[in-house]
Amino acid sequence: MSNAEDYRGHNRLIVPALSGIYTGLHGFSETLLRVLAGLTLTVHGAGKITNPFGAAGMVESLGFYPGELWSLLLSCTEFFGGILIAIGLLTRPAAFAGMIVLLVTVWFHWIVQGEGFAGAEKSILWAAILFFFVIRGANSQSVDARIGRQF
């Protein structure tokens, strides 16, 4: 049973009159979250993709060698992965790669920088959003759906 079908069970809602709104906006809200997450990741990675080896020293300071390789992968994951997530193509692998990057930033802010939850909370939220798409994939409003294939 999908979430949209859950809302049709009027006895499950405190305000049954809202079931039509919830059902009608279900697919749109998921698409909006995916597109905004992808576009935001793309914008965040845009600065890195123009200098894909620029983070080599930073990633080596975290123990990722060779820094040039990891810097390139970081740049591509954020920029191109964000585009893939936004359009809904290869959504699961792109979201998985982005989630791994964000989990590393959680570790960096929480442990390496010693900022604890306050420093890592944004990365935790972003990792959770991408985890949603790793598990869920793209919905019917995606390139994956148009080509009839998902990873």
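^ that was protein a. below is b, sequence first then the tokens
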Amino acid sequence: MVAEILVGTCNWADHTDFYPLELERGRRQREKLSYYARYFPMVEIDTSFYGTPRPAVVDGWVARTPERFLFNIKAFRSLTRHEREAGQPRRPTDDEVRDFLAALVPLRQSGKLGAVHYQFPPWFTSTPAARDVLLETRERHPDDIVAIEFRHRSWFDNDAWPATEDLLRELDCVYVGVDAPQLGSGTAPPILAITSEKLCIARFHGRNRRTWYRPSGPNSADRFDYLYSAAELSEWVPSIREAARRGTTVYVLLNNNRSNYAVVNAFDFGALLDVALPRPPQPIVDRLVARDAAVPAWVAKGAAPPPWETSPTPDAAQGTLDLST
């Protein structure tokens, strides 16, 4: 049986020219997630890479999304060896591990946890020590779906890929296939592979070669400043369809978070993959017209999104509002 394909973006807060103006300032920014969830069935939490959210904040995200909505969540940066001491990657502290695992509890208990996403840095090369880190990662999440994204060519080049693929299969970890600028050693080739029967992920960073190695932060719009054409995205359609045909659920996630580019390209994928998404709002249609000089035929075929229930009163259970996410 053909499996499900879910399309979404890598965060929800950064999309300008998507949300109604009244959600762009003040306390109503928290309503962006419920507005986003009218159009897409899942999202990746990326702010957790920079700072682990408190469980109460995650509870608020769960409450503001539909019953079947799913969240992928990025591991905190020390867990992926992005943090350094004396120039060397450091292990996460016990407190950092505890806090991150606590943040997963509301997602897991609500049934809204998709995958726990470990994006390893360009200096995480294919070595015995790195493979031990992968084993440690798997053991940290015995009952979760763990997704692995590499950023160094040593996992792929010089006939290394078959061994990498076998390792991920042995660990039952999901390989994250990425579309990114093919530039230097700090990028992965465009491969989509099924290394776990549970899930397959394709993640799109854009193809901006000029900014790929620019340091990123919570606002990484410059690095991912790239609007794909529908033709570029269609290069991935056969492999995504094949994974679904083989019975593996596929997540398609857009990380080109400049302006509304990720949202536009998520709608593109909905059309290319015959995934039923609601009709996009007018700012997205305007961007499509600016790119293609015409309104794509699929826009008119989309159904209206479900009603949007606003909640301008702060959620008392949320405590201090996290307006950025």
